[in-house]
Design a protein that fits this description.
Low-confidence stretches: none
Shape: globular
Largest sheet: 8 strands, mixed
Radius of gyration: 22 Å
Distance between the termini: 53 Å
């Protein structure tokens, strides 16, 4: 017990936490969905705080472009499983806690089974379909969703707890069209903002666990790092909400690819087998690899033309409309979005997106 007092002395000295609060932290369990820019500081601070059980779910591997903001990783981790590396780093920081690493995609089939083992869920995801799934699983499980997002120099944090206030659907009842809100990889993000917002997220999780202060339930904190400004917005519970309203229509989980309109251009997708046949039988094919300037060259298609997503429309007058153009990216999402951009720009040639991306090729 002496080590307990010594390690967490700075918490115990706080009257809002004390010994009782620290014991609550030790007996608590928190699931982090996403081991990226937000998940990195979130996991490290929760581990340092002594959260008894930390779960991390993410199916991605470390890429060199992650290192600018995902501080739990280093250069030697590139290509390795994010959750396995995160588990290793957390256990080194605090060997007294238990870490559960879920190296799998977060989907409706596994969501409730995983969530039932945790007191709080922290949403560190980077896409809307996952955010809706986290929110719905939290509401159906009766646990709070500590949500955050970052964009360029900006960040937002709130807590969606359907038992005490609004849920994410009260805030965003209609999912935006896929591609209408660019990801960090597409728009850029200052690395430090993920540390600031992820740390605020961790603070909110600890407040929920200990009962200290006023958690951001029914409130949204907006942070503008470029101008160093903060604003607060109220989020009211919607009595007509399809999930937590008086007559909810959502009573079970589903995957939200279609809700977020990822499949809008599914007719342009091509499977790995179909592409291999095309490459074998047809020479008049151009492969475009969607990658940003700081990303490594595509190793699956080393002879492909690398183009950043924000430069895609400039290909309109350079591509041969008599050729088949195949767009590839890691997961198959950016490539679909590239096709959408070129179609909206008026390009009439045949275009295909590699289904599932190069990870599935």
């Amino acid at each position: 017990m002496q080590n307990f007092y010594e390690r967490y002395k700075s918490h115990i000295l706080l009257k809002e936490i004390g010994i009782s609060g620290q014991k609550h932290i030790k007996s608590s369990s928190v699931l982090i969905v996403g081991a990226g820019g937000l998940g990195s500081p979130l996991a490290l601070y929760l581990a340092a705080a002594g959260v008894g059980t930390i779960g991390i779910i993410d199916f991605d591997t470390v890429d060199v472009s992650n290192l600018q903001r995902q501080i739990i990783y280093n250069d030697s981790d590139v290509g390795k499983s994010k959750v396995e590396i995160a588990k290793e780093r957390i256990e080194k920081l605090n060997p007294e806690i238990k870490v559960n690493a879920y190296n799998e995609k977060f989907i409706s089939v596994n969501a409730l089974d995983i969530f039932r083992n945790y007191d709080v869920v922290a949403d560190a995801a980077d896409n809307f379909q996952t955010r809706y799934l986290i929110n719905d699983a939290c509401a159906l499980s009766g646990i709070p969703d500590v949500w955050a997002s970052v964009y360029k120099f900006e960040g937002q944090v709130s807590i969606f707890d359907a038992k005490k206030g609004a849920c994410y659907r009260c805030f965003h009842p209609i999912a935006p069209k896929h591609g209408s809100v660019p990801s960090c990889g597409e728009s850029g993000v200052i690395g430090a903002i993920t540390g600031i917002i992820g740390s605020i997220q961790a603070c909110e999780v600890l407040k929920i666990i200990t009962g200290a202060g006023m958690p951001l339930i029914g409130r949204l904190l907006y942070f503008d790092a470029l101008n160093m400004l903060t604003k607060e917005f109220k989020i009211k519970k919607d009595k007509n909400c399809s999930l937590c309203g008086t007559n909810p229509s959502i009573k079970e989980l589903t995957d939200y690819d279609e809700v977020c309109q990822i499949n809008k251009f599914a007719e342009n997708e091509i499977t790995s087998d179909e592409l291999k046949i095309k490459l074998k039988n047809k020479k008049n094919i151009k492969i475009i690899s969607i990658c940003e300037e700081n990303e490594k060259q595509n190793l699956v298609f080393p002879n492909s033309l690398p183009v950043a997503l924000n430069n895609i429309v400039f290909l309109k007058d350079k591509l041969n409309t008599n050729s088949d153009t195949i767009f590839v990216c890691k997961y198959g999402y950016k490539s679909i979005y590239a096709i959408r951009l070129l179609k909206e720009a008026g390009y009439k040639g045949k275009m295909y997106s590699l289904k599932g991306g190069t990870d599935k090729y």
